[in-house]
Specification:
seven-stranded mixed β-sheet, alpha/beta, single chain, Rossmann fold, 16 helices, 410 residues
């Protein structure tokens, strides 16, 4: 029987999933391997009748530049009991599988780490290589290398947010736009800065203060007042969903939202509109202040996950896919494939990236003290400063309460 490899995709989709899978398939098929695709993410490894298919060259060639994921995904998180009782070793033995390739984000990477340890402890002759993806750009890759899918998602988010901003300018309104990013503000910052939004709110901004709904609203109104002073009656506020994720329990309860949670214990933020929630609260505050400002909510999230990858990700994901074969041919296992800006492929070992106490891969945050972020908040974002206090008194009696740096304790 031919030697085989099997590929699964976990978590949520990102542009480039099919590029990675198709490129891996082409590389291994050319070397005489049989390539299997497992549907259902990790759930397929822990059930007696997994749903899988064979990926031939024609299939790989037909999907590599498509959005979405041909292999159906899931957020399934195996339990300790699953590993001990339900791991489907027969799937690997019956198909002579020598390599498991996992494609996913931080949660998928953490589970890949558990799988690698399990295979090693049981002395199963199956190697494991992970391909890191997430539109959130929050996996800790060296040299600030982006995760695949981020640039394509940012490009589509920028297209949407640009259209929204044009509507604001045309109609003299304000739009409150919430962008995906559960643990970090990369996507919101990237989209907001690309569109020159006058206020961008991400969790990393609160490095010297706690995140509260009141501060989020005051930052937003600070931008509105500053633009009024400038004679500009329109604008956009970009908010990362991560600020919602970072609110403490009392703040969450105060919003009135009832959460459900996914298999990894994260609140399912996609089920609620963060933009609508903050917009409703802000409308109440603006009315209290007697400010006649029309605000409208927009959510950027699911509409940027399954778009076709842009050329950057097509090339990058192809390199990652070919990199899987290169690492496998060198005997690597229990690692992530990493391609640097020079195109060099090398392994990143999951055990070296994980938190020693939790075993999880910690998220990469926006470097809020770095030149890029500081430049954006110094030159692009609009907000009240002490120089604006006198002019701001036309709109609020206490302008210092809306001072950007005082709110954040910067």
């Amino acid at each position: 029987m031919k030697q085989s490899i099997i590929i699964l995709t976990g978590g949520g989709p990102a542009p480039g999933m099919n590029t990675v899978v198709g490129s891996i398939a082409k590389a291994f098929i050319a070397q005489g391997y049989r390539v299997l695709g497992l549907h259902g993410g990790y759930s397929g490894l822990f059930c007696p009748n997994p749903n899988y298919c064979e990926l031939d060259f024609v299939m790989a060639d037909s999907i590599f530049n498509r959005g979405g994921s041909y292999l159906m995904m899931s957020r399934y998180k195996p339990t300790a009991e699953d590993f001990e009782k339900n791991f489907n070793l027969k799937l690997f033995e019956d198909n002579n599988i020598k390599l498991l390739v996992t494609v996913g984000g931080d949660d998928t990477a953490s589970t890949a780490n558990r799988v690698a340890k399990f295979l090693q402890e049981k002395h199963y002759p199956i190697r494991n290589i992970h391909v890191p993806k997430t539109i959130d750009n929050d996996l800790p890759l060296p040299m600030n290398t982006p995760t695949f899918g981020y640039n394509s998602a940012k490009a589509e988010g920028t297209r949407i947010a640009t259209t929204v901003y044009e509507d604001a300018r045309t109609s003299g309104n304000w739009f409150l736009v919430a962008a995906m990013g559960r643990s970090a503000g990369h996507l919101a910052l990237g989209i907001g800065a690309s569109c020159h939004y006058p206020m961008i709110i991400i969790p990393e901004m609160f490095n010297k203060s706690t995140i509260t709904v009141d501060k989020i609203i005051k930052l937003s109104i600070s931008s509105i007042i500053k633009r009024k002073i400038m004679g500009i009656p329109y604008g956009g506020i970009m908010i990362s969903e991560g600020v919602f994720h970072e609110l403490d329990q009392d703040e969450l309860v105060a919003t009135g939202v009832k959460f459900t949670y996914d298999e990894h214990g994260h609140p399912e933020l996609g089920k609620i509109s963060k933009a609508q929630l903050f917009n409703d609260i802000m409308e109440i505050k603006l009315k209290e202040l007697g400010m006649k400002v029309k605000t409208r909510p927009i959510e950027i999230g699911y509409d940027i996950r399954c778009q076709s990858p842009i050329s950057y990700d097509l090339m990058y994901c192809s390199q990652l896919g070919f990199g899987v074969y290169e690492l496998f041919s060198k005997g690597e296992t229990g690692c992530m494939v990493y391609v640097d800006t020079q195109g060099e492929c090398r392994p990143l070992y999951l055990k070296d990236l994980q938190d020693p106490e939790t075993g999880k891969i910690p998220p990469r945050k926006v470097d809020i003290e770095g030149d890029m972020a500081q430049g954006i908040y110094k030159h692009l974002v609009h907000y009240i400063t002490p120089a604006d206090y006198e002019a701001a008194k036309k709109y609020v009696s206490n302008p210092e309460d809306y001072d950007f740096k005082k709110i954040l304790n910067w």
